[in-house]
Each structure stands twice: as structure tokens, then as C-alpha cells.
Amino acid sequence: MPTAGVHEFTADLTVRRRDTPAEGVVVLDLGYPDDRTGCPELPRWQPGAHIDLILSDDLVRQYSLCGDPRDPTVWRIGVLLDPASRGGSRFVHEHLHEGATVTVRGPRNQFPLVSSAKYRFIAGGIGITPILTMLEAAELSGAESTLIYGGRNRKSMAFADDLLGRHPDKVTVWPQDERGLLDLDSLLGEPADDTLIYCCGPEALLTAVEERCSIWPSGSLHVERFAAKAPTAEQLATALEHFEVVCQRSGVTIEVGPDDSVLELVEAAGVPITTSCYEGICGSCRARVLDGAPDHRDSVLKAAEKEAGDMILCVSRSCTPRLVLDL
Amino acid sequence: MSADRPDNYPRNCWFVAATSSEVVTAPLGRRLLGEDVVLWRSAGGRLIAFENRCAHRAFPLSHSVIDGEHLICGYHGCTYDSDGACTHIPSQERVPSGMRVRTFPILEDPPFVWIWMGSPGAAALSSPPHVPWIREPGWTSFYSAWDVAANYLMVHEHYLDFSYATILHGADIPEAIRSMPAFSEVEVSETTVSYTRVLPPARPTDWEADAGGLDRTVEYRRQEMGTFASPALHLHQWDLETPAAEVLTTTRLHALTPESETSTHVFMAGSRNYAPGSAVVTEVLRSFLDGVAGRDVAVLEAVSAHSGYQRWQTGVEFQADVAALHARRIVGVMLSNEAGPARIRGRRAGRD
């Protein structure tokens, strides 16, 4: 019996506007072409959401949406030209000029703004993009919030002036060449039950914040990363080379070998599932584990989500010979 | 569902509270998302939503008199301005300080009046979902509304399935289509789900032939599409292609608003892109869709009364439920984000 492929919203959009708000950063407004009449609106999104830019078959990159969630005609992203670019940001900077067409997919959200009385936002460099709308949403909901925005120097820090203008008493801009490294210990302060921490930025910043938040209540810290975390030596040691995955609802059982991806085999078996990055960072292929112990290799799930039994199928494996999934 | 939050409707979402024509001169009392709301229109034409309880003795303000830009309670005559502040009490000189009723953000976009029952400030960063068809040129619409004694997600999931059509609405589906085929496509985003089914060519049903002026001996190609646009809105589209490659589209828009955990207000718009303005065709479609709605309500109320949404939700899932399950997941995420952090007792988060 043919099973429908579940796919994410995908569209060819036009670069309606391109700005350069800071050194090495371009901001693109993506929308349907102007001449297209009666075109549907773009799907709505919540603060923290991101989209895929499908730049070629093997070049898919994730960028946070940083525009106005009320405007269903434009998706805005900010892209930093990464000197160590694997091709994504360089392609965007070199080819996506006004009028260019790009295939986009999504949006999806692994960084949702969970309701709270207080927020501490920490952004590093281009990691400011998802935080822009989150800060706005937090303010509108009446929560107390602060933002520390770090970067190499002022001219590399997009949106800094705008943020200071809008929220002078909430925002601290922290250029490294003027103030040194972020003083995370005093910025984070003592663990608090009523405060959530949202952090987006380079890996070194995320790791430092994660370390300091290990004494905070579980679920306090939310991070968004744009590069996959490497598996630890411990994880590699406990992982099984061969195991079995049972898709409970579909009645499908698959054998997974050392070079297989659970996701690819599940997909090949015709089990409906959404897929996207295949790197464990986008969260599309999340599934609920009913039995067995997954070996988490992704960079998406928070500790509480792993406790609750979620698993990311594209990169994660198993520590038990049998994994039963709610699929 | 937890004890302190037993319901399953997100508050930070625009829902349809009423149609514009329902709120003309008299205040309208209505239970929305488990809360009693009164909708009223000031003399200047502005629509206002209050909690439907006077701040003095909790008398229902739906029994009030509108005086210009004010609402006067029908019990002690407490007068409220459009911001919900009490400005006058007949029996004493001074109004107790801070005396007011709760107000809700409202957006009127005829034919619908949308309400925001969540944190009032957050309404500013959200807008109601796009309502297609009804204002587009070349389309003719008619409206209907009813209540169904079932949880609103049960109603959404029922509409997003439609594999039961040949059984429940057999007379309205072409005879040659014995069972609804599997989805051809399911498309998801952070906030939406939609599916498409391509149907095999078949002769028209009575409603199709009567509404579209079709030849009953010709086989037509069709596709059926359903969309979960938000927790407040379901869209259903039925396309029929003529041999001349003209596409006759008949749509149903259902604005679904929880009244309580076990009852839902449904505001329906039926639209078409053919037979513009024809009262005869409107009557054909109205009678067809009334029949559909009646059978939908009967099934949902039977399950709801007999088993409830919990039992409905824990049944064995079919392939045809994939869209409904995605919708359930979208709502689940909205609810958990609104509920706040999920703390695991006695544990500390760490790097892992």
C-alpha cells in the first residue's frame, strides 16, 4: 500500500531585499515573487524558529527567522560569512542578491520560547538572530528580560544599535575588543527557579554557558546551535554496532548495521516521518522511544526531552539490542 | 493534561469568537475556552470583549445596556468604559479605585471577530491565520454555525482524516470511489499541516452535478485537500476538473473555537469559484453541507459521550491519521511552551 511521504513545506522564494547591517553579515528578506498573484501566505512561525536554505542537493543550511512573525509575506534571515565556511554562508553572500531565487524549507522550531516570568538571553555574534524576536515576545508577554550580546567588535555586531535603541535598559552590548570575554559567572548569577536562559552563538559560548548552567534547575537552559556536536568517546564506547528498531504503530522491524542511519532505514521502510538535515541539528526526525535505551548523538534534544523519551533518528543509535519507537 | 491545567487549548492563539453580524446592537454572551465573555459594539462601531461578569456581584454583563461608548450593567447600573474601567455607580459618588472588568484583545475582520484569550501583550506579535476564499474576487460564499458536544481537537482530527467519507458521507462521494485512497502528499511546517488526496476519475455525485451543472455520464478527475491552519482554523478543498481543464473548487472553512473541554463552536464558510452569485447553487451546496455537518456532529458527539477525547486519542492509528497526528503534535508543543518549563524533580540538568 503506498504511503504518502510526509515532507516539510518547501518553496522557491525570491530575495526581495538584501542589507548589510554589519561587517560580514547580510540580511535577506525572502518572499514569493512580486508578480505572483493570489499567492498563498508563507506558513506562520513562532519566535526561535528556523528554516532550511537548500542551496544545492548537498548544501542545506539552517538559519533562524528574525523578522516580524505577524508578516506572512516575508521570511527574514541573517547570514554571517564564516571564513571556515563549508560552502553555505559563502554561497549566500556570493549568489543571493536581490532578485535571486532560493529553495527554502520549514519553518521548524527547536528553540521555542517557553513561558516564564523572567528570561536571560545570551547571544554571541550572529546568534543574535533568533533572540531578536524572542526578546520582543518576552517583553510583550510582560516578562522581565535581559540580553547580553557579545561579539568580536562593534562593527561586526548586527542589530546592536537597534536593540540598544529599543530596549536601552534591557540590553548589554559586549564587544570583546572593548570589554574582553563575557563575564558569564556574574551575568548568570545564582540559579533561579523562575528564570529561563536562552543562548545562541558559537560552540565555545554554548559550552561555557552549558557548564555554568549545570547547577541550574533542569530545563532552565535552552540553546540553539548551528554546528553539530561531536559524539564523545564515552558515547562511542557504549554504542552498539548492530541493533534492531521496531516501529510499533507501523508494525515494521528493521536491522541497523554500523554504517546505517536509523532514519534512512525507517524512511526506506515506508514509515511516515519528516526528514531534513541528517546531522542531528534540525530536529525534524524526532520520534518517541517506547522501549530500549537510545544512544543520543544529536545536538537538538535537551536533557528533559531525552528523559521524556524523545530521540533524533538521523544520527542517534542504540545502547540496547532493541529499540521500540512510536512510529 | 495535569490537574492544574486540565484543558487542551492554547491561550496564545487567535480564535473566532463570533461573526460580525452576531454583534450588532445587543451584547452577546458566549463561553470561549472555558471563560464567560461578553462581546459588545459601542455606538462608534468598535467591538469590545469583557469577561461576562460585573465586578460588583458577578452579574452577567450580557444583560446590559449599551450607552454610546459605555456598557451599563443591568443589575446595579455599574457603568464601564471600553477599556473595562468602571466610571460610574448610581448609588454612590465615588467609584472604588481600580474597579474594572477583564478585557480581551479583539480583531474584527468581517465576517469574523477574533479573540485572544492569552497574555494580552503577546497578541501584538501574532495575527489570525489567513482566511482564504471568502473575500477573493470570483468566489461566492455562504455561512453557517453550530455547536458540537466534543473536544475541539477531536473535531480537528476528524476533519483532517476524511478516510471515513465513503462510509459516513457515502451518498456525497462518487459511487465508483469505494474507499478513500491514501494521502498523495502531507506537508508540515512549524504551525501547519496539509494533505492532498488524488481521487480516481469517477462520475459526479448529485451535489456535484447539481452545483456544477455537470454531465452525469462523464468521469471527472478530483483532488481533495485538508489543512490545519492553526488550532482555530481548518480548511477543506474539493477540486473537480472538467474535460476542458476547468477546475471547479468547492471549499469548507471551519473556524473551531473551544467552548469547554467537551464542546466546540463551529463557524463554517462554504465557498466556490463557479456559478457566481447563483442562489440555486448556494442552496444545493448549503443542503449538501448541512447534511455533512449533521453526520459529522452525530459521530463526534457519539464518541465524545461514549468514550471522550482521551479514549479517542489512545486508539490504534491508521496511515490516514498522519495529518491529524501532526496537528496534535503542533498543539502539544504550543501547550507545553505555554505551560512553562518541565522540571524533573530531584534532578539537575547537566551536560550530556
Low-pLDDT residue spans of chain A: none
Can you identify the CATH class of the largest domain in chain A?
Alpha Beta
User: What's the total count of β strands of chain B?
Assistant: 18
Query: At the third CATH level, what is the topology name of the largest domain in chain A?
Result: Rossmann fold
Low-confidence stretches of chain B: 343-352
Number of domains of chain B: 2
- Tell me the helix content of chain B: 10-25%
Give the N-terminus to C-terminus distance of chain B in angstroms: 29 Å
Biggest sheet statistics of chain B: 7 strands, antiparallel
- Helix and strand run of chain B: EEEEEEEEEEEEHHEEHEEEEHHH
What is the domain tally of chain A?
Answer: 3
Strand content of chain B: 25-35%
Largest sheet of chain A: 6 strands, antiparallel
- Give me the strand/helix succession of chain A: EEEEEEHEEHEHEHHEHEHEEHEEHEEE
**CATH homologous superfamily label of the largest domain in chain A:** Nucleotide-binding domain of ferredoxin-NADP reductase (FNR) module
Task: Could you tell me the CATH topology label of the largest domain in chain B.
Answer: Naphthalene 1,2-dioxygenase Alpha Subunit, Chain A, domain 1
The best one-word shape of chain A is: globular
Structural commentary:
- The complex is a heterodimer of chains A (327) and B (352).
- By secondary structure, chain A is of the alpha/beta class.
- Chain A has three domains: 10-108, Translation factors (Elongation Factor Tu (Ef-tu), domain 3), CATH 2.40.30; 118-224, 3-Layer(aba) Sandwich (Rossmann fold); 233-325, Beta-grasp domain (Ubiquitin-like (UB roll)).
- Chain A has helices at 88-95, 128-140, 160-166, 176-179, 184-188, 203-212, 233-238, 262-268, 303-307, and strands spanning 6-8, 10-22, 25-31, 50-56, 59-64, 75-80, 101-108, 118-124, 144-151, 171-175, 195-200, 221-224, 243-247, 252-256, 286-291, 294-295, 310-312, 317-318, 322-325.
- In chain A, the strands form four sheets. In chain A, strands 5-4-7-2-3-6 form a six-stranded antiparallel beta sheet, covered by helices on one side. A five-stranded parallel beta sheet of chain A has the order 10-9-8-11-12, sandwiched between helices.
- The longest helix of chain A has 13 residues, at 128-140.
- Chain B is an alpha+beta fold and 352 residues long.
- Chain B has two domains: 14-125, 3-layer Sandwich (Rieske Iron-sulfur Protein); 140-337, Naphthalene 1,2-dioxygenase Alpha Subunit, Chain A, domain 1, CATH 3.90.380.10.
- Helices cover 20% and strands 32% of the residues of chain B.
- The longest helix of chain B has 28 residues, at 279-306.
- Chain B starts with 13 loop residues before the first strand and ends in a 13-residue tail after the last helix.
- Classes of the chains: A alpha/beta (327), B alpha+beta (352).
